Each structure stands twice: as structure tokens, then as C-alpha cells.
Amino acid sequence: MKLSLSTQPLNTQAKEGWIVFVQNKKPLLTGKNPLKTLLSNQIKKSNFSGDFAQTAVFPGFGKVKAGHIILAGLGKGDAFRIETLERAAAAAIRAGKKAGLTGFATESAAGLKGVSETAFAHSVGRGAAWGSYSFDEFKTTKKKRGAEPSLVFAGPCKNAAACRRALAEAQVESEALLSTADLANLPGNFATPQKIANWSKKMAKETGLTCSVLNKTDLKKQKCNALLSVAAGSDTDAKIITLKHKGSDPKANPVVLVGKTITFDSGGLSLKSGKNMQWMQFDKCGGMAVLAAMNMVARLKPKASVIGILTVAENMPSGGASRPGDIVKSRSGKTIEILNTDAEGRLALCDALDLALTHKPAAIVDLATLTGAVIMALGHTAAAIVGNNHRFNQKLIKAAENGGERLWELPLWQEHKEDIKGTFADLQNISKSGTAGTITAGAFLSEFVPDNVPWAHIDIAGTAWEETPKAWMAPGVTLFGARTLIEWIKGMDIGNE
Ligand code: BES
Ligand code: MN
Ligand code: ZN
User: Fold this and answer.
1) Deepest in the core among 97, 111, 432, 472, taking most CB within 10 A?
2) DSSP state at residue 232
3) What's domain 182-493's superfamily in CATH?
């Protein structure tokens, strides 16, 4: 999606489609625009209610310079969040694309209360790009990819330079999201650990990050036995991929992003049922969000140093697989009883968290499709955040809000930590009580991070992908978390998380 700015008003833009947002049933257009009454009348006659992400495509009938007008509902003002705008923009493009349109324009400021013109440009620009995406690599009947779609933000804005910067940022972030989605949407037989390593190296080379990969022998030397135990039943080896961005102050401590990257989660010997195993190619989405965020970091070059770590393995059953009851010694030295081989994410993560500490991090954030329990707690609209520092959690929650994502904090109490103490080893990988699944998984991870390092764990099991088409996106990965991470990093002072 090509995003650009024009100081000429919308009325002068000869385009295939004009996007007009609708809030409280009113089209958001500034100034004396003849479209206002035209559209208001159209809306009254149609069954378009302006609900969130509802769209309607009207022909321009030669009365305006647009072939079509796409209405995009923002719902009522009281429920508005920046996420609403990003998704409505995506929905508008999806509707336009279905109608065969590729050249779009929308009004820059659009008179949306409480949203700055730069936030508007950023959110609408990124949403538009996301709405244009679908994963169709394996459709043999797929249509030829036509011209790259474009969106012009038209009309005067208070600070054109700032708007251009916001659009350029949206452009970079969108390109990172779309290119990573092409990898993340690949199924388990294509997105192998080796493939992800190769992809990461190539991306790093193209964008100026450094990339190093630990293979099986390196992982053995590093005593990453918890991670290795996850891959023990697989024909493909585990890996740890590290990507680095050097900030402007080389002495400042980096922030480290850690992503669970299970290329397929069968459950191992604690085999999942057929229904629960479906979609488990997306158990790599924590790592995919980190990869997208690192791509953005590489090109936006924030002041802070940022390190991304992907802990990669495939969880399969075989004669070599870990058995329930097995005990492993993690990189940290803590021993773990593997009571359920399907609680593999925390095993892969604990070694990566310990490795993260070697970088003397200012803060650590991990992202993981870790527990089905988070879907019980929050459904598919928000991810859970659990950590060792309430203030730090709040910072990330705020970043998520600005980034169009939702995080909800869950507590982490002493009782939860007791719940994952082992019988024969230091820890066990499932709780004794069988309750508070998302929190106890977080409690397990907290054992690998000292209290004085701000650390947050984000459980994206409910938000990492869409299984059916939505108004704002085609089925597939959402890369949930990447938008939060980049928002947080952009707003950060050096060496101070
Ligand atoms: N990858 C799954 C969690 C998951 C479930 C992600 C559904 C997305 C959708 C994870 O490895 C897992 O299997 N967790 C178990 C933990 C349990 C054994 C303590 C779960 O949630 O059932
Ligand atoms: Mn599992
Ligand atoms: Zn898993």
C-alpha cells in the first residue's frame, strides 16, 4: 500500500474510491463539502448503520471525482479507541478491494474528535495496508497481483511535515507487518525452524540488523536443555535466533524481546486432540511478532538498543520425545519436571529468558501463544499481561492502547509461584492446582528473571490469529504484539524502559 499526502482537498482527487468515515451515523467531512448532504441522504435510505467496521460502497455517479465512495463505520463516539479507526480503515480497503478498486483517497484530518492528525494518518495508513493483505500463496486459482494499492490523504493539515513523517512510519510498519505475515502464515511443513532462521538472516542483512543463530550443538554447549527437550521428538532441530539493533548510545542497556516460536505444537506425547491441534502452525506467533517488531526497529532506528530473541522448536511425539515425568536442567540451573509435554512453551521460553539476561537488559518483554486459559479469561479481544513490575505493565498497556491493541493485566502472587514448585525437581511445568492457567504459566517464567529486571509476559494465545474472515482482515495471523512493542520502543528514552 502506497501512502501519500496531498494538500489539495478530497473533492479534487480523481480516484477509484474515496473513503469516508462515519461516526454516530454522520459522515466525517470537514468544511463545506456537498458530499455531506448527499451521503447523509444515502445513509438514511440504505441499511448502513455506521456500526463499527461496517462498510458500504456507493457509486459516485459522475457527481464527484470518485468512481466510488466507501463508507466505513466507526460506531458511536463513546466506544471509540484508536483500534476502531485502524480496523475501520482496513475494512474500507477490504470492501474496496472486493469491488475491484485499488486507488483510494481519504480526508486528512476528517474532523475526528480526540485524534490528532498525525495519529489519524498513522492509524488509517497502517490499517489500510493491513486491510489490503491476504495470504493466498497456496491458492492455485489466485488472481494475478494487480497494481499495488495506494491511499492519498487529501486536504490541508496543520503540520504537513509531521503528517508525512507519520505516514512514512505507517509505511515502514506496514511493510514489516505484511512481509512477516507471509512467513508467519506458512504452515508447519513450510515454516520449519531452518526456514525461519534463513528468513531472519536475510531480513537482518537487508535491514542492517545483526543476526546470529544457535543450532543444536550450540544449544547443547549453552545448556539450553529445556528448549532441547521440546524438540527431542521432532525430526527438525531447535534453534535460538538473536537479532540486534544498536541504538545511538552503545553503552545504554538494551531492551530484549523474546518470542515463543513453536513451528507446530502437536502437544508431544501429551498429544492434543484433533480439534485442539488444528491451527497449531500459529504457535510461532510470539516469535513472528518479535520478528516484525525488529524489522520495524531496523528501519525506524530508535535511540534505544533492541535485541530480539526467537526460541524455535517443533513439538512432536516420537521414540525420542520427552516423556511426562522427565526431569531437565534448564540453562539457569533450575531443574524442571516435565509433567505435561504440551506445556512446552514455557520450557522453550525459560532458556531464552536466561539467555536474555546475558545482554544485561534494561527490560524484557516476552510474547507467547502460551495458554488456552487466556481465551477462557479474555476471549479473542485482548491479550493478558503478567509481570514482575506493575508500573512497567502499565507502560506496555498504554503502548498497546496507542498501537491499536488491547492488554489486560493479571496478577502474579506468591500463591501462584507455590503452585508450580516441583515434587522431585525445583519446578514443574504445569500447576498442581490446575487453576489460573495463564497466571501460573507466568509464575513459571518469573522464576527465570530476577526481580530487579522489569519483565512482562504477554500471552497472545487468543489474539494471534483469525480463523474466519473479519471485516478488517482475511483469515490468518494478526501479528498481535508487534504494534504494541514498536509503540513502546518509539516512546522510550535511552536506557530507561
Ligand atoms: N500452544 C498452546 C496454547 C494454545 C492453545 C495456544 C490454544 C493457542 C490456542 C500451549 O503450548 C499449550 O498447549 N498449553 C496448554 C498448557 C497446559 C498443558 C498446562 C494449554 O493451554 O492447554
Ligand atoms: Mn502446547
Ligand atoms: Zn504451544
Assistant:
1) 472
2) T
3) Zn peptidases (3.40.630.10)
Q: Does this model's pTM top 0.90? A: yes
Find the 447 Cα to ligand 3 centroid distance in Å: 19
Residues 333, 255, 258, 388: what is their CA dihedral angle, to the nearest 10 degrees? 70
Q: Is the pLDDT of residue 245 over 70?
A: yes
Nearest atom of ligand 1 to the alpha carbon of 369 = 6
Mode of pairing for the β-strands spanning 363-368 and 455-459 = parallel
* CB of 344 shorter than 6 A to ligand 1: yes
- Give the list of residues 6+ apart from residue 216 with CB closer than 8 angstroms, or none: 228, 231, 237, 238
DSSP for 44-76, please give it: HHSS----TT-EEEEE-TTTSSEEEEEEEE---
Ligand 3 centre from 129 Cα, in Å?
Answer: 29
pLDDT tens for 370-424 read 999 999 999 999 999 999 999 999 999 999 999 999 999 999 999 999 999 999 9
Number of Cβ atoms within 10 Å of the Cβ of 477:
25
What are the residues whose beta carbons fall under 8 Å from the beta carbon of 421, sequence distance 6 or more? 427, 428, 432
Which residue among 262, 272, 342 has the greatest number of ligand 1 atoms within 8 angstroms of its CB, and so is best to mutate?
Answer: 342
Per-residue model confidence (pLDDT) at position 496: 60
Q: For 127-176, write each residue's pLDDT tens digit.
A: 999 999 999 999 998 676 778 999 999 998 899 999 999 999 999 999 99
Would you say the CB of residue 430 lies under 6 angstroms from ligand 1? yes
In whole angstroms, how far apart are CA 466 and each of 113, 282, 460, 462?
A: 30, 10, 12, 9
Options 3.90.550.10, 3.40.800.20, 3.40.220.10, 3.10.20.30; which CATH number does 2-156 get? Answer: 3.40.220.10
Which residue in 15, 94, 346, 483 is the catalytic one?
A: 346
33 phi, psi to nearest 5 deg:
-105, 120
Ligand 2 center–CA 139 separation, angstroms: 29
Interatomic CA distance for residues 412 and 378, integer angstroms: 17
Residue 190 is classified by DSSP as T
Domain ranges of the chain: 2-156, 182-493
CB of 431 shorter than 6 A to ligand 1: no
User: Residue 85 contacts by C-beta under 8 Å, 6 or more apart in sequence?
Assistant: 21, 74, 112, 115, 120, 123, 124, 127, 404
Pinpoint the alpha helices (H) of 336-411. 345-357, 373-378, 390-402
Q: Is 32 a catalytic residue?
A: no
Q: Is 88 exposed, middle or buried (0-12, 13-18, 19+ CB in 10 A)?
A: buried
User: Separation of 342 CA from ligand 1 center, angstroms?
Assistant: 7
